[in-house]
Write a structure and sequence with these properties.
This protein is mainly alpha-helical. Helix content is 63%, strand content 5%.
């Protein structure tokens, strides 16, 4: 069994909002966290929530802590949800509740072929929906065999050709369903229609993974033939239907590069793709199949491409002159094929020639050339995104020290700092590299202040917090994000500063004003009263009956401030004036009269 990673509550706090952390603690206290299992690097748990069925939480760990975490709940508000927090807290606080299981590899190691087959049959009998998944996996692996990354290899191809008709019928049925809807319904259904057609298209992916470009082309041709003929007949105001060609074109390119086509076949495909492109151009899609046409016409024997793959690197990359708009898409398609074929050095040469730095360094790591990857990263990485990709690859291959150093260097590179800084903060914290974690946390906050990042710095700073705090507040004063300023000022109980922010921004959001009102009603009653009146009176004066309850809620807050200041008489006079003024508004008057109590 793998050792337990160094996971602390402080780390968990940095990965969730304050509200999610608090709610996670409540879930743990109320025993909403059901069985927790750990199998090697993976935690599996169920948490009771608002749905009848419990939510399922999956957490993947390594020596640095949490690699990734998922929950089946719909939460999408930043950081980990309360269910993930509850599971992580249970793991840290109540390790006796975690059931340890041996790895799947060790469980299966002693079984022979017959026993394994029997287990698989039993599994499918209990979970028949997995049959389709299994069939797809088997199809994808038909042409594969074990290859060494450094050796060129050509997977065995499927011997029979797929029948395109089932795929054509599927796309035709999807589009027919959209056509049978009323126009108002069809407008809102286009996104779902594209998603269904995409599912048909993605059935080509297992064949691409197996190196079977010909059968992938059968599926893609069936999809394209039906889609090109019908898509323009529907309302595409949002561009979702036309946007599908941005996905279909690159996938065609990859399939064409995977298939061993004769010159005549390449010519036929170029003609077919060009005809489709001409059709969709009439409806404003100027670039849909361009990358696929280029893949067909250029193939693998294009001289500048051949030179680039041989290691002759120039500023022109794999092109004679200026690269076309689709150069990056075509480069990625080529690299995907080279990787599947195990042609590592050609992959690296082409990636370097085409400026695909992220793919270049991650392939070095995959190929076990760690020293080269780190040396290249230290000298040539230019963006935070490149540094993050390399650091993640190094971590995945258990080169912890190198991952930390590359990520640390990345903090000084060009590009958005927060994603890299958050990753490094959490990873370093899990490894007890507190100084580095603090540096990363500060970098994330300084890049774009937020309350969550402010709190993360506070947790990591420990006894040095007071020295760090002033710098963070100085940075906060420079941001134009009103809600962020208010959140942090209120967290620090700096109510005067929060009020100043509201007064300086006439367009402050409703909820932000309310948060300051709720914090200031005792210390600044006069300001709160003015704000509440400014929110409530326009609603009442304009007769917005559907929103009267909002006005009354604001008046309730004003009443609270009046009474806290000892101004009960003034409140009474103001309220009676409102009742008199709006006496004919029969839905409003009873709500105002209730405020007398």
């Amino acid at each position: 069994m793998s050792p337990r990673p160094n996971l602390t509550e402080a780390t968990i706090r940095t990965l969730a909002t304050a509200q999610s952390f608090s709610r996670g603690e409540e879930y743990l206290a109320t025993r909403a966290v059901l069985d927790i299992e750990r199998r090697e690097e993976t935690l599996l748990a169920e948490v009771e929530g608002s749905s009848y069925e419990p939510y399922r939480v999956t957490v993947r760990l390594d020596e640095g802590g949490i690699v990734e975490a998922y929950c089946t709940c719909p939460y999408d508000w930043g950081g980990y949800c309360k269910h993930i927090v509850a599971v992580l807290l249970a793991y840290v606080r109540r390790p006796e509740r975690v059931t340890e299981h041996p790895s799947i590899d060790s469980l299966l190691a002693g079984l022979d072929r017959e026993a394994l087959a029997g287990l698989l049959v039993d599994l499918l009998a209990a979970h028949p929906h997995l049959a389709d998944w299994l069939e797809t996996r088997i199809t994808a692996q038909e042409g594969l065999r074990e290859v060494d990354l450094e050796a060129e290899a050509k997977p065995r191809q499927r011997q029979t050709v797929l029948d395109p008709q089932p795929f054509r019928r599927q796309v035709r049925s999807i589009l027919r369903g959209l056509g049978q809807m009323r126009p108002s319904e069809a407008y809102w259904a286009t996104g779902g229609t594209v998603a269904q057609v995409r599912e048909v298209m993605m059935q080509a992916q297992p064949f691409l993974e197996a190196g079977d470009g010909r059968n992938a082309l059968v599926i893609l041709e069936a999809v394209a033939a039906e889609y090109v003929e019908e898509w323009f007949e529907f309302d595409d105001s949002d561009g979702e239907l036309g946007g599908f060609f941005d996905e279909l074109g690159p996938m065609f390119a990859e399939a064409l590069l995977s298939a061993d086509l004769s010159p005549a076949e390449r010519k036929a495909w170029a003609d077919k793709l060009t005809a489709w492109q001409n059709e969709i151009e009439d409806y404003g899609i100027d670039e849909g199949f361009d990358v696929a046409i280029a893949a067909t016409e250029l193939g693998w024997d294009n001289p500048p491409l051949v030179r680039a793959m041989e290691g002759h690197i120039t500023e022109l990359g794999a092109w004679e002159g200026e690269a076309p708009w689709y150069a990056e898409e075509l480069a990625i398609a080529r690299l995907n094929v080279l990787e599947r074929q195990g042609r590592v050095q050609e992959y690296l040469n082409l990636a370097e020639a085409e400026g695909q730095t992220t793919l270049y360094v991650t392939m070095l790591v995959k190929a076990g050339r760690i020293d080269e990857a780190v040396a290249y990263g230290q000298e040539y990485l230019t963006t935070t995104g490149e540094a993050l990709a390399l650091a993640q690859a190094l971590r995945a291959h258990e080169h912890t020290h190198d991952a930390l150093r590359i990520a640390e260097r990345g903090l000084s590179l060009y590009g958005p700092v927060r994603p890299l800084a958050h990753w490094l903060r959490d990873f370093a914290s899990g490894l007890d590299e507190t100084g580095l974690a603090l540096r990363a946390a500060r970098a994330a906050y300084m890049d774009s202040p937020s309350l969550a990042d402010y709190q993360a710095v506070q947790l990591l700073a420990g006894d040095d917090w007071l020295q760090v705090k002033d710098k963070l507040l100085e940075r906060l004063a420079q941001t134009s994000l009103t809600s962020t300023k208010v959140d942090i000022y209120l967290y620090e109980q700096l109510i005067d500063q929060a009020i100043q922010v509201i007064d300086q921004d006439r367009y402050t959001g409703y909820s932000t004003v309310e948060s300051v009102v709720d914090a200031a009603w005792q210390s600044h009653p006069d300001w709160v009263i003015r704000q509440c009146k400014a929110q409530a009176e326009p609603i009442m004066d304009q007769g917005k009956s559907r929103h009267y309850h909002h006005a009354v809620r604001w008046l309730g807050k004003a009443r609270q401030a009046y009474l806290a200041a000892g101004w009960a008489d003034e409140w009474g006079t103001y309220l009676e004036g409102l009742i008199s003024k709006h006496t004919r508004k029969y839905s409003l008057r009873p709500q105002l009269e209730a405020l007398r109590k």
